[in-house]
Design brief:
Keywords: Membrane, Transmembrane, Transmembrane helix. By secondary structure, this protein is an alpha+beta fold. The chain has a domain of 36 residues. The chain is built from 3 helices and 4 strands, in the order ββααββα. The mean pLDDT is 77.
Length: 118
């Protein structure tokens, strides 16, 4: 018996070997599903925190809270494997892919470093 499944490949012969390989495959699938569920929980927690940060922000620090919330929301999307996201409201429309976000974060980090060194 030969198995080729998402980067996992194995060849076995004999009844015991086939049973053992079947158990390995079942365990692998079970663990993969557990990981997916954990990532969904992490995503929920990050999005909940991102939603509550602006509510409890002291006066005068609203901009920082919005930036922090946006970063947490992007991290949450990354945790579940999203590579593209878009937000559309009557006033704002945002569409982005992972590479665009990485480039934007690098630009912000570079300009922040330059302003601190000056």
């Amino acid at each position: 018996m030969q198995v080729n499944h998402e980067g996992f490949s194995a060849t076995v012969s004999g009844q015991e070997a086939v049973r053992a390989l079947s158990e390995i495959m079942l365990t692998r699938i079970r663990e993969k599903e557990k990981t997916k569920r954990l990532l969904i929980v992490v995503t929920f927690v990050l999005l909940a925190i991102a939603a509550f940060i602006p509510l409890f922000t002291p006066e005068g620090r609203e901009a920082n809270s919005y930036i922090t919330s946006a970063v947490l929301a992007i991290m949450a999307l990354g945790a579940i494997g999203a590579t593209k996201f878009s937000i559309k409201t009557p006033a704002v429309e945002i569409e982005s892919e992972v590479q665009q976000v990485v480039n934007m974060v690098n630009k912000v980090g570079t300009s922040y470093s330059e302003s601190n060194n000056a």
